[in-house]
Amino acid sequence: MFAVIETGGKQYRVSQGDVVRVESLEENVGDQVAIDAVHLIADGTNVFVGRPNVEGATVRATVVEEGRGPKVVAFKKKRRKGYRRKIGHRQNFTALQIDEIIAPGAK
Q: What long-range pairs does 44-50 form, CB within 8 A, spacing at least 24?
């Protein structure tokens, strides 16, 4: 069984037990998170597609880590002008472990 969820303006394909790095959330390590923006749920036989979200579907996850990603360097240069700019950026992330995918109509 897998689901397509949206958090932080991005969509992720997740299954039970997966660890997914998403945009930084305001939760602490060990907290439970319920994601209601589920766009699709598919098990072996049934497929639920939302418009845009599947009604009654939820994905529950646990925050396992908070951190910062690798440094991305933006370097600008114009030849023969003495112009050089170096800018670095590290994006914050929250790692979620997917505990369960609750399909519509399930308890």
A: 44/1, 46/103, 48/103, 48/104
* Terminal Cα distance for the chain, rounded: 16
Q: What is the pTM of this model?
A: 0.85
DSSP state of 56: T
pLDDT digits (tens, 9 = 90+) for 18-76: 999 999 999 999 999 999 999 999 988 889 999 999 999 999 999 999 999 999 999 99
Per the structure block, which two tokens stand in for 24?
């930084």
- 8 neighbors 35 (Cβ within 8 angstroms): no
Per-residue tokens: 70: 């690798």
Say how far apart CA 23 and CA 25 lie, in whole Å: 6
Contact 33, 61 (CB under 8 A): yes
